[in-house]
Amino acid sequence: MSVRLTLALDSGDLQLSGVTSVVLPTPDHDLSALPKSAEVVQPFKPFYDHFVSQGFECVPETTAPCDTAIVFLPRAKAQARAAVAAACQRCSGLVVIDGAKTDGIDSILKELRKRVEIFGPMSKAHGKIFWFQSAPEIVTDWVARSEQIVDGFHTAPGVFSADGIDPASALLIDALPQKLGTRVADLGAGWGFLAARLLQDPKIESVDLVEADHAALTCAQANINDDRARFHWADALTWQTKEQFNTVVMNPPFHTSRAAEPALGQGFIQTAARILTTSGTLWLVANRHLPYETVLGQHFASVQETAGDNRFKVLRAQRPTRKRR
C-alpha cells in the first residue's frame, strides 16, 4: 500500500527531486502525495486509464531518463527484477522500492543489500519501502532480455504464460472446428498463441487481438507477421468496435489479484455477445471450477461443453441473444 510512500515522504527521510517516474502502481496505490508532473509507467490498460483519470501523464513503457524512480513491486519475481533493473538503467538519482511481503519485498531487499547501500527501510502495512542511489551496474544481471523465446514465441517477464504455451489455450485450439467464419476476435489475446494458430487458416480474413497488457501485446506483434492481424491495446470489458464478428475465441483471465474474480470472465462473455453477429459463436476455455455457464445462458441461445479434462473445459456458446446498442 502507498501508505508506506506517504510515511517515508512525511518523515523527511525520503526526498524526491527532479523528474519522477512511478513504475507499476495499481489503483490500490494512492499517489496523491506525488506531484502531477510525475510520470506513471503502467502497461495494464485499466490501471493506465485509472491514473490518466487522476491527471497523471502516463505511458505503457519507457526508456526515458529520470531523476527519481519509484517502483511498486509486482507479484511476478521476474517482472519485479526487470522493473528494478530498468529503473537503475535510466535513473540518475534515487530508486525507491515499495512492496508487500507477499510480493517478495524482503527477498528483493536482501539481494540489493549485497550490492548497494540501502536507505530506510521502513515497515508498514505488511510491507516495506526502501531506497538507494541508482547506478546501471547494480543489477545488470537482472536486466530482462529484450527477446525471450519460449516454444518459438516471444514472451516477456510478467505476462500471462510467460514460460510457455498455456495448456488451456492448447486445449481450446485443438477443440476448434475447421470453419470459424471470416472475421474472428481474440479477447485477452496475450502474446498471440491463439491468434497465430488461427491465422494458419487462409479462409480467415481478419483476427482482432484485444489485450490489456501492453507488454503481452508487444510480444504478439512480434509473434504475428500477418496483415490480417489487427492489434488493440484495450480492456476487453469496455472495448468498442463497429465491426461484428463471426467468431470470438478467448481464454479469459480470472484474476487481477490473488483471489479469483469470476466477474472478469463474465464481463468478457458480455463483450463477446455484444460484438458477435446474431449467428455468431463464442469459443471459451476456462478452469473447470469457474461458473460461466449461467452467464453464458443469459446471453446465448445455446451453450455446450465440447471438450475438457479434469482441469479445464471448452464451452461453445452460439447465437447471442442480448440486444445490441
Compile the SSE list and pairings.
Blueprint (H helix, E strand, L loop, with lengths): L2 H9 L8 E4 L15 E3 L3 H9 L3 E3 L8 E5 L4 H14 L3 E7 L4 H9 L5 E6 L2 E7 L14 E3 L2 E3 L11 H9 L7 E5 L5 H6 L7 E6 L2 H10 L5 E5 L11 E6 L11 H14 E12 L5 H7 E9 L3 E9 L5
Parallel strand pairs: 1-2, 1-4, 2-3, 4-5, 10-11, 10-13, 11-12, 13-14
Antiparallel strand pairs: 5-7, 6-7, 8-9, 14-16, 15-16
Domain module tally: 2
Widest beta sheet: strand line-up: 3-2-1-4-5-7-6
User: So what's the overall shape?
Assistant: elongated
Give the count of helical stretches.
9
- Assign the CATH topology of the largest domain: Rossmann fold
Derived from helix and strand composition plus strand pairing, the structural class reads alpha/beta
**CATH architecture heading of the largest domain:** 3-Layer(aba) Sandwich
- Poorly predicted regions: none
